[in-house]
Amino acid sequence: MRVLVTGSDGFIGSHVVDALAGEGHEVVGFDRAHRLETGGDLAAQRIVGDVRDLDAMRVAVSSVDAVSHQAAMVGLGVDLADAPAFVAHNDLGTAVLLRALHDRSFAGPIALASSMVVYGEGRYRCARHGLVRASPRRPEDLDAGRYEPPCPSCGSALVPEAVTEDAPLDPRNVYAATKVHQEHLCAVYARERGSPVAALRYHNVYGPRMPRDTPYAGVASLFRSALERGESPIVLEDGRQRRNFVHVCDVARANVVALEAAADGAFNVASADPHSVGEMADALADAFEDGTIRPRVVGGARLGDVRHVFASPERASREIGFRARIGFAEGMASFATDPLRGPIATNPAS
Q: HEC states along 288-307?
């Protein structure tokens, strides 16, 4: 296949380029800039442009058989002032891509980089009320160190469970809202044009080429950057919030598998074994140099963050044959010395 990869020089996009080329596919890379240190140099053709530029997107999609749409502004952001930028890059950028595909009557497979953030809080069970939908956590509870969301009906403690793709979508920050909208836009396109669309809901991705020293970076990158500076990684809340940490090479392979299978629907892209944020910080610290710099748990919480969200990988395994291969211990030991991408002045749309 000839595959367009938007955001081809970004953290995940560059690995998608490498994975596709490694399987013999021809890649058209599209990004706002060519950053040599990110990798992804296996693209047969490179186009420098903005996904919001319809003329550039028409050129990019003109002769491709499939699309891996990775270009996006990522992360929780700093505050609500980021909303116009998130919406412009993610919602408008996706709409422009779909318009360009529509103009050439494209009906090939699309893999969309979605995210676990579309779920909001994960799946919870109350001993009395069964499965419940946890309410957003209150600032006064977070300030008092009460981090676990209570049952909305009786206020009792909840037990977190692995979230499945049929869970209600409940975005709890601007970035999450744009990811939901990207999924919906692509679903509309699929209904009109017949394209199979795989909404790949990435969980906490880490690995080489992560951006360092930016408030938009993932928590793994923030911890790794702190260790490089000789500082203790700062762990918010009590460090017991649970996530799936999935290696970027597995995420890239999920894109290849989804496109080759012409997969349709939402798929969690996650490991099978969740870990706490504190465990991740400890694993990185253990593997970094002599292991003497230790994480520091400081309490507090980021606005818009959630307590527990970890996934069931069963649908991806059953329907497209994808399972993460790189285990937590192996991946974190490697990430302690993996090259990161240099700091950039603004958040990239890739």
A: CCCCCCCCEEEECCCCCCCC
Tell me if 171 sits within 8 A of 118, measured CB to CB: yes
Measured between its terminal Cα atoms, the distance across the chain in Å is 22
Structure tokens, 202:
């990435």
Dihedral over alpha carbons 58, 64, 66, 67 (to 10 degrees): -40
Q: Which long-range contacts (CB under 8 A, 24 or more apart) does 210-215 make?
A: 210/11, 210/248, 210/338, 210/340, 210/341, 211/11, 211/340, 211/341, 211/343, 211/344, 211/348, 212/340, 212/341, 212/342, 212/343, 213/343, 214/75, 214/343, 214/344, 214/347, 215/75, 215/77, 215/78
Give bridge partners of residue 101 from the DSSP assignment. Answer: none
Q: How far apart are CA 310 and CA 302, in angstroms?
A: 18
Neighbours of 91 (CB within 10 A): 19
Could you list the pLDDT tens digit for every one of the 350 residues in the chain? 999 999 999 999 999 999 999 999 999 999 997 665 556 778 889 999 999 999 999 999 999 999 999 999 987 665 788 899 999 999 999 999 999 999 999 999 999 999 999 999 999 999 999 999 998 888 999 999 999 999 999 999 999 999 999 999 999 889 999 999 999 999 999 999 999 999 999 999 999 999 887 666 788 999 999 999 999 999 999 999 999 999 999 999 999 999 999 999 999 999 999 999 999 999 999 999 889 999 999 999 887 788 999 999 999 999 999 999 999 999 999 999 999 887 544 444 44
Yes or no: say if 126 and 132 are a contact pair by the CB < 8 Å rule: yes
Tokens of 106: 């494209």
